[in-house]
Amino acid sequence: MEQRTVRPRIDDVAREAGVSKTAVSFAFNSPERLAPETADRIRIIAERLGYTPHPVARMLTQGATLTIGVLTPQPLSVVFANPFFGTFAAGIGAAAEKAGYALQFISPLRGSLAGAMHHATVDGVVAVGLAGDHPEVDEIRRTGVPIVLVDSTAVPGWSSVSIDDIGGARAAAEHLLALGHRDLLVIGVEPPTPGSSATAGPDPNGVTARRVAGYRQALSAAGAALADGAVVAGPATIEGGGEALDRAWRAGLRPTGILAMSDALAIGAIGALRARDLRVPTDVSVVGFDDIEVAAYLEPALTTIHQPIARKGREAIELLLAAIDARTGPAGAGATTPEHRVLPTHLVVRASTGPFPRR
Amino acid sequence: MEQRTVRPRIDDVAREAGVSKTAVSFAFNSPERLAPETADRIRIIAERLGYTPHPVARMLTQGATLTIGVLTPQPLSVVFANPFFGTFAAGIGAAAEKAGYALQFISPLRGSLAGAMHHATVDGVVAVGLAGDHPEVDEIRRTGVPIVLVDSTAVPGWSSVSIDDIGGARAAAEHLLALGHRDLLVIGVEPPTPGSSATAGPDPNGVTARRVAGYRQALSAAGAALADGAVVAGPATIEGGGEALDRAWRAGLRPTGILAMSDALAIGAIGALRARDLRVPTDVSVVGFDDIEVAAYLEPALTTIHQPIARKGREAIELLLAAIDARTGPAGAGATTPEHRVLPTHLVVRASTGPFPRR
DNA sequence: ACGACCGCCTAAACCGGTTTACGGGACCGT
DNA sequence: ACGGTCCCGTAAACCGGTTTAGGCGGTCGT
Fold first, then answer.
1. A191 near A127, Cβ under 8 Å?
2. Does A260 touch chain B (CB under 8 A)?
3. Chain B residue nearest residue A332, CA to CA
C-alpha cells in the first residue's frame, strides 16, 4: 500500500528515521561517520520507503555526472546505419563501463549540435568525425568540456585518436594499380555538414581529404590520375554507397576499380553493380575501408583496409579519462597537454578484387 | 584574455549586466517578460562571457532531462557487437531526436543494472531484452521511471513492443522441414543474466523460450522433435555463433539444418561450418532471424526471418513519449494504461538453405 | 576534579539555476 | 489629484541533495 505518486526525498527518510537529512546523506555516502546501527537503521528505512538519492541533485553538488558523451555531427539514424560504428561503440562502451561511466549520445537536436551539447550532462566527450571547419566547433569548444577527437581534423588543445588514413588509402590504391586497374572511382563519406563546405569542398584536413591524398599519392607514383568527377560521396551507409555508385554510373563513368572509404559504402556499391549485371571482381574490383567484422563473410569477401576499430574507441576513452581527472584531481593542474595517437592500418586482400578485365 | 578556468555562472552575468539573476534567467527562458532591449543586452553579455545555463541545475528545477535511456542487461560490448542493435538504435535514435530527446545507454555498471539505472538522468527508458525474472527488475521498477519493454517478458504495468516470435520461429522451422531436414540444431541467445536462470533454465516467457516454442510447434506438426541437447546458446554475436556451433559439434551433434535466433549467430555458425569444410547450403542449411541489412549481401545470402527492426524502435519511443507526458502533463493522470504491440515477421528465403543432402 | 579528546550527530551554507509573489514607476482616465 | 492597470524587474523560496563547521555528552589522562 505504498503511494506511487511521488518520489520520496531525503527529508522523508530523515523524518521517518528521526534524524537529520545530513545523517541520511552520511548513511549512503560516508557511513563511517555514523554509528553502525544508526546507518543500518537509516538504510533500512530508506529501502522501505523506496528512497534513492536523486541523481540530478547529486550531480549538482558533486560536479560529476559519471557520463561520457559521444558526439557525432550526423543524426543517429545515419551514424548507427554504419556497421563500423557498432564496433566502435562496443569498444568505447566497454572501456567506459569498466571505468564506471555511462554513455550518452550527442547528435544535432533541432539542427544544432552545440545546442545538443549544452543540454548534455557529461563529464567529457568523444567527438567522432568532427570537421575542424564545422560551424559550431567554436561554440562547442566554449563549453569547456574535455574533448577527445576521433577521426577528425586536429583542433588545437584537444587530444585525438586517428588512424593512418593516408597510408591505408595508398595501400588500397596501390593494390588496384598492381592488378592493372587505371580507371578508378573514389566513393567518399559525405561531409557531415553540407553548409560548412559549400564553397571550399570537403574540409581540407578531414578524413576524406586525407584518404583522397593517399589515393592520389599511389596514382601519381604509377603515372596515373583520377578522372574528372571520379570522386563521389554519400552518407556512410550501405544505401549511400549504392546511390553514390549509381550517380557515378549515370554521369558516364565506367571505372574498373572502386575505392570506397568505408565498407558500408563498398557493400552498397557492390549491390548496385550487381543490379547492373556487373560481376565483382570479374568486371569491377572493389576495395573497402574499415574491415568491419562481416567483411570476411560477404559475397564476395571484401578486400579492404583494416583498422583497429574497437581499439580506437578504447584509446579515446583512455585519453578522455586522463583529461577528466586532470581537471578534477590536482587543484592547480588545468589541462593535460594534448596527445595525438595514430593507429596503423593495413590491406587485407580477400575476394572483391581481381585483375583488370582483359575483355 | 578570458579565463578558461571556471565556468561562468548566472550571477556573473547578472553582476556584469547590473541586473538580478532572475532577469538573466528570463532573458533565456521567457524573454517576453523583459523589455526587448534588456533581454538583448543580457544575452549579448552572456555570449561574451561564454555563459550557458548549467544543464544539471536546469534539470533539477525543471524536473525533466530531455534524455531517454536505453537499458540493456548485457554489457555494451556484446550489445553493440550485434548488427541488429545498430539498426534498432538508428530507429530509436531518429525518433528520439525528432522529439528533441538525446539517448543515454544504461548497462550494468560494476555488476549492477539497477545501480546504473539509479545514476541515469533520464525521463524514460526503453528496456530491450529484459527478462521478467531478472533479479533486479523489482528494484528497477521502484525507480518509478516510465519504461517501455522491447523484446522482453511482459511485466505488469509497462507497455511493450514485441514481434511475433512464435510465428516467425515456426515459419523458419517449417521452411527447413519442407526441405526435408529432420536433424535440427537451435542456436539461441544466451540468457542475459546467468544468475537469474541458474536453476530454471531460460525465462519461460522470454524471447528465447517463445522462439523455441515456435520451432517446436512446427516440428511436432511434422512429427519430428528436437534431439537432446539440440538447443545451444551463446551471446548474440558473430563470435558467439561460431562458438555455439563448435560446442554442439564437439558434443557429437550432426544436424543438417540450423535454426539461429539471430543473424549474427547465423553468420558465426556459417563461418564455423566452413572451418569444418562443410558447405552451406549443400551440406548444412542455416536460417537466421532478424534480417539485418547485410543479410542479403552475405555469402551465401542469408535465409532468415524478417522483422521490422527500426520500426520497433520508433514505436517504442512513441509509446514511451506518451507515457512521459502523461505523467508530466495533466496533473491527475498518473499513468496511461499499458499498451502491447506485436509486430509481424515473415520468412525471407535466400541462399543459405537448400534441400536435405541425399548423400 | 578538570581539561582534552573522541564519537556521533546536526544546523546551515552551498551547488546553479527557475519560479512565485510582489514592488515601484509610468501611463491612463476622470 | 487619485485610483487602477500595465510593464519591468527583483527578492526570496525552491528543486534535492552534499559538505563544512560545530555542538554535545561521555571517557580518558593526570
1. no
2. no
3. B5
- List the single residue in B107, B267, B296 with the smallest CB-CB distance to A297: B267
CA of B58 to C1' of C16 (A): 8
DSSP state of B145: -
CA of B239 to C1' of D18 (A): 46
Nine cell digits for residue B29: 527562458
Query: All 3 cell numbers of residue B128?
Result: 530491450
Does A108 contact chain B (CB < 8 Å)? yes
Q: State the amino acid at position A17 in one-letter form.
A: A
Mutation target to probe the B interface, by most B beta carbons within 10 A, among A68, A237, A297, A314 is A297
Which chain A residues are within 8 Å of B94, Cβ to Cβ? 75-77
DSSP H or E segment with residue A147: strand A147-150
Residues A165/A210, Cβ–Cβ less than 8 Å:
yes
Q: Record the cell numbers describing residue A3, joined without a space.
A: 503511494
pLDDT tens, position by position, A242-256: 999 999 999 999 999
Cell of A24: 541520511
Ramachandran angles phi, psi of B140, nearest 5° = -65, -40
Chain A residues touching B97 at Cβ < 8 A:
75-77, 107-109
A90 and B76 within 8 Å at the Cβ level: the answer is yes
Q: Could you write out the DSSP letters of every residue in A66-115?
A: -EEEEE-SS-HHHHTTSHHHHHHHHHHHHHHHHTT-EEEEE--BTTBHHH
Measured between CB atoms, which of B59, B60, B83 is closest to A83? Answer: B83
Residues B334, A5: C-beta atoms closer than 8 Å: yes
Residues 48-107 of B with CB under 7 A from strand C: 51, 53-54, 57-58, 60-62
CB B265 within 8 A of CB B347: no
Q: Which amino acid is it at A171?
A: A
Question: With contacts defined as CB-CB under 8 Å, which chain A residues touch B274?
Answer: none
Rounded Cα distance, B120 and B67, in Å: 9
Give tens-digit pLDDT for B59-91: 999 999 999 999 999 999 999 999 999 999 999
**Residue A298 carries which DSSP code?**
B
What pLDDT is stored for residue A331 in this prediction?
52
What the block records as the C-alpha cell of B336 is 496511461
Quote the cell numbers at residue B239.
563470435
Q: Closest Cα partner for B346 from B108, B101, B121, B175? A: B175
In degrees and rounded to multiples of 5, residue B248 shows phi and psi of -60, -40
pTM over 0.90: yes
pLDDT tens, position by position, A287-328: 999 999 999 999 999 999 999 999 999 999 999 999 998 887
Residue B278 CA to residue A134 CA, distance in Å, equals: 51
Q: Outline where DSSP puts E strands in chain B.
A: 67-71, 102-106, 124-128, 147-150, 159-163, 184-189, 231-234, 257-260, 285-287, 304-306, 340-343, 346-348
pLDDT score for B64? 95
